[in-house]
């Protein structure tokens, strides 16, 4: 009899514990979603908004709108329905991309097909999210232009401060009259790690295109694997960008036109000035989303010039290109520097003026060495045929080759 008396209070306690855990799970999901969206917007390039929000301890729903900070060229809307559980939350919804100032939707307005759906699972205890989007094939035709897209898949995951994105697209073809651009499978791997408010961040990206072909009357180019790797890092002192482009064999008329690798690094971009410029840009766009580019540049001129105070440096870490068809080889390295003295004499908003561009060019100094320069290049530049290395110097914006002024390249 005593055991029977205990059943009801135990059941009530368990129900209360479950209800409390369910309520906490819904609160944690909402908190993590809000933090993730705030961190995404803190980076500076995007505007993120929420609408139609309905919160509940069993389920939540709403819509997310992501658009560029500048302009109205596109918008990505993600509807979501979250079903909360004690240990995990299942999320699903539709992906609704649109383009142009009138937000013309790709699926529905341009394509007579349903938008793709996305699915994810949020782990309450670990605070991790894993999800995916399946892209269905489609065909768009407009006059002589046609895009044949054969589908793909995107997956994403991570937790606050560390997110990953992987994309795999099937072959696609773009036709414009008699010209055709065709791509083999494309893959993208991206990782974004950051501190609160994106004060510091590091982003790694790797893009691979298995094959790429261009064809038009009288010209046909076909490339093997192309890959682009980049690393962007913002720390206490600077913004640094490392990038590397690797070209497989580019064929023309069944001969190798080009292959090789280029690696570059941009550094000494003042970190505090970058943050100030992004903050100022947000303030200006909050007043009016559509601004004349020159007017916007004028308003941001102090912040933009501040980015240059540490003498930005562009390093050409390595160039290793070869063209058996043309009989040319380019192997070299170098660096280019910007002189930051008397920045008040410069105006980014007047760069469309030839005299202003001359002032900016006058701030450039650097050098580049082309090892084992082909004889035909030495002959073209009017140098002795015995020239082995090409020393290219940039002095106050003027180019000298092996101590001589650069001769006119087109005669």
Automatic annotation (TrEMBL):
Q: What is this protein called?
A: DUF945 family protein
Organism encoding this protein: Halomonas mongoliensis
